[in-house]
Amino acid sequence: MTTALDIQGLQKTYGNGFIALKGIDLRVEQGDFFALLGANGAGKSTTIGIASSLVNKTAGKVSIFGYDLDTQREQAKAQIGLVPQEFNFNIFEPIVEILVNQGGYYGIPRAEAFARAEVLLKQLGLWDKARDQARTLSGGMKRRLMIARSLIHQPRLLILDEPTAGVDIEIRRSMWEFLRKLNADGTTIILTTHYLEEAESLCRNIGIIDRGELIENTSMKQLLNRLDTESYVFDL
Ligand code: ATP
């Protein structure tokens, strides 16, 4: 079995001395739909920030589809699409241009990137807005734009940091449908969330981070069985 994300002994101490990750081991296999749960400040964003090369690690090893983050960073980065929590696009740019420009970062020719953008924007219900500036979109639409942009280079692993936070339930469900299909078509997905309901609905396997440590790493089914039979403290 191919491992999509392999993390060993991951540690992170921020510049102010705060120890955010205390040595995490985590494997996510190809094809998985994996949830990373944890309370505010547990270390979820730090973990995926390191996996997607936005944050430098202090110690440990990370590889993406076998590419080592220290020695094969560019190949590792090419495997990943990231949807960060914050909107980080130019709000004055037309939506389709945001995607085409992102394609440019990965060396995708303009015509090819445009064709891919059309497919993605149609799938995510944004094609009729393709020529509008991003600032005209609602919060839920901006979130979908971030998902479309993260997929323009057809990554094998998609990582989403709380993609449905603040999104109303109808849009949330349509995003879930999109992600389910993407996963069924072969993309490995890792999602951080505060919502157990979201993890339950989408994910096969789950990791729970608590104050920089991975305290659970199991199948969703096993965790839910346990929650039924034990008075497990689950304070997210
Ligand atoms: P949330 O659900 O609120 O996004 P999280 O689980 O994603 O939380 P992180 O964002 O990874 O948590 O943060 C883990 C800890 O590291 C928090 O206590 C946070 O305050 C701290 N932290 C994050 N970034 C920095 C930074 N640049 N400098 C210092 N401390 C930081």
From TrEMBL:
Keyword Cell cycle attributed: no
Entry annotated with the keyword Transport: yes
Record key words, sorted: ATP-binding, Nucleotide-binding, Transport
Leader sequence residues: none
Regions that span the bilayer: none
Domain ABC transporter: 5-236
GO molecular function annotations of the record: ATP binding
Full protein name: ABC transporter ATP-binding protein
